[in-house]
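Researcher: Good morning. I'm working through a list of sequences from a screen, and I'd like to move beyond sequence-only analysis. For each chain I'm collecting a predicted structure so we can compare shapes side by side. This is the next one on the list. No need for commentary yet; just the structure.
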Amino acid sequence: MSAALGPGAVEAVVALASFGAVYAFYRGIFPEGSMNRRVRAHHLKQRPDGGSEQDGAAARRQKSVGIVRTLLEYLKLTRGEEVRKSTELLVQAGWRNPDALTIFLGLRLCLPVGLGLLAYMLAPGVSHHISPLTRVCVSLGGIALGAYAPSMMVKNTIQNRRQKIQLGLADALDLFVICAEAGLGLEPAITRVAREIGASAPELADELGLTSIELGFLPNRGDALANLTRRVDTASIRSLVNTLIQTERYGTPLAQSLRVLAGEFRNMRMMKAEEKAARLPATLTVPMIVFILPPLFTVLIGPAIVQIITSLRH
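Model: Good morning. Structure tokens for this chain:
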């Protein structure tokens, strides 16, 4: 078959197959509008409805995920401490789809093999005089890239999501204070804040919406707040959760505690801004030396150098 198609056709088929597999995994992890549908579902207390096209796409996605799940179960890769850690990372990244773990493990299994074979087959196209050892090294580089790319993507998503939640937390705390002073309890206040900040901070609204739902059906309210800490593992969220737990346990006025915490977060943001401003002169030193001083010296000393060279020639 490879002799009939030719090496170029085989490489094209492998490239298209690898791209199709990666794209299928991507569509499984990132369904269209998943964040907006989830936030809207929390606000309206109902499941998001979909049309026949969405049902067909979901059916095809479930069929593909089922094949990957069968392969993972056959290889016994769906159990162990590493799987538990991967599940926690996916939850922190906001991927709470039941199939997210299967897709992530499938990526970690198939992507190294696909990129390794693709790098091995495409290496001669870059240079016809490439040695077999260099070709093997390029293939190993593709395998390493495929092995670390899913984890790097998840960690990068977690970091970006935490930054977005951190940016919207101060405004959310101000709304918490207003709701508490208006006489709302913890669960109604969280629900109202999640609804109000849905447009400006959808990630934080999503987490608060889930917390509000868990407060409604979990027997222990502390467990619902602790789940928020596990989903968003940041110092600010831990401080907020500890404040809410102490308020529930000791009967501290909710509005007063949240006002103090909001002031601390405002001061923290101001300190970080001042720290960045203080680092600015040191940060600009290297670009100034590399990009500003050489043209300046050229403009100032260049004409004198040209005149000296001209006078020496004559």
